[in-house]
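Weekend entry, working from home. Most of the wet-lab plans are on hold until the incubator is repaired, so I used the time to fold the two sequences that have been sitting in the queue since the last round of cloning. Logging both here for the record. First:
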Amino acid sequence: MTRPPRVTFVVPCYNLGHLLTECVTSILAQSFVDFEVLVLDDCSPDATPEIARSFGDPRVHHVRHATNLGHMRNYNAGIAMARGEYVWLISADDRLRRPYVLERFVALLDRQSDAGYAFCPVMRFRDGTETTVYGDHGDGDRVFTGDAFARALARGNSVPAASGLVRKSFYDSFGMFPLDLPFACDWYMWALFALHGDVGYLAEPMVGWRVHANNMTHSFTSRPTALMRDEILVLVRVRDQARATGHTEVASVYDDAIVSYYAWRIASGVGPDGFGRMTPEQLEASLAEWCHDERERKRILGRAYAAFGDVWYDKGDANGALRWYGSALRLAPADARTLVKYGLLRAGRVGHRVRAVVASRS
């Protein structure tokens, strides 16, 4: 029996055959050569099978499913097949920018036995032109403690999906991509793994993340209600995992993040036009899905209703703002910020001017 490779690249591919060559070629160009490439063909209707078999390298394996599994089941199938000590999941539309990136990642994880995964920033590119960097965590290489990095992820996902090299043992021990979180599954995995190990970071953007019309990200943001549902459940589940594993400080950070997330979605939404803003009805439905503690429910609703008050105030509707601030205070009567806003609004023009001055200085 042949010795298993050190690294397995899992390359999910659906209708991306025209980009597959660039991705796989960037992998085959790596200075670290002890790897296998699993092209996970999710019953793609294009020329993916022919392209996947064209590389002439025994390290590249084409795996075609009999039926379409969907992106997360495809990810999990590839991870389950992986023989490597380390697993790199990279979509067929992305690429490695440097021939030494794998060598550097493996060296880091070999040195840092407590690290569950390593990543670097990615360089976005469109039509051959590189644009902006995503996933920047500072100018220098470093290893974050797991707790510190888990706390950072409470602010949102900042680990590019295309640039993570993960110990296979972490998938085996702590689980694979949750099928009921299709829009935020990678964020959940990065935070979950950080509860069980440190996180390696290399500052150079050594991976390219292609931006194009068929990006999965575009389909996510076009369905804001589903996206919001998944993102709040990530925060809830990581908080619960942190509590269960004794990471009390991390759990507290995520507890605050849950409330802040609702307030942010209510007050701002996905973009400056308010697209994706959470309505009162959506808020109630979201809480009903996971929150079964009445005290916690009142605490969250109090902050959320105050955020609704801010929205109405910014629209110039004083009566609407007073109504929501009043609802917030009935649930959380000791909330000082809401008390002040409510009092200033009741003070009329003078209160409005005071609030405008305070806002301009904050």
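Second, folded right after the first finished:
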Amino acid sequence: MSEFRGRDLSFWKQRLGVPPDWVWERTELETLVLADNGLKALSDRIGGLTNLRVLDLGHNRLTRLPDTLGDLAGLDFLYLHDNGLTALPASLRRLTRLRYLNLSANAFDTFPDAVAGMEGLIELRAADNRLASLPPNLAGLTRLRELHLRNNRLATLPESLAVLDELRRIDLRGNPLTHLPSSLARLPRLEKLDLRWVPTLSPAPWYADLEARGCLIYR
């Protein structure tokens, strides 16, 4: 049974399998929750819901997304966690107003290029994937405040992240880190650097510089 309130529609945990066709006719929708429904595919018609600001597709069985998702230019929050995604459509680069993106618990081996175009991102979650590296072009996410990368396969981070002056939190727990760039010490607003469950990483001298500024380093 759906919960419909004005411009908000929730099918949370309804075991839909496939959303009903009438959903794509509700072009006034601003929030659409399809989480935990066993979805294996998403209709191309999603691109017609151009007023959407929040889209929750978490806890499903999606292995790909339609290109038309990039037509949702007004999206602020996009939840894609706990699916089987290995890539994102290039069209998602057009989601420049997106503030929150959750890609955690998918099957990404390579960081999706489309994310680099999401210049409005404030919080990015990509925990519990298979990422071995991050692309230097993430430096374009100049509004980013939180970067969550727990339980991936990262050995280091790109030097270019040091230009992200708004970054407050970096979560690197459970990665096989062997080196972190000293340039991270220049991040002026960093409040928390989480390095727990990383026995492969030796403490660096520049940790003291961050801690002297009030940054908490968990290790």
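Plan for Monday: verify the second prediction. The chain has one domain: 3-218.
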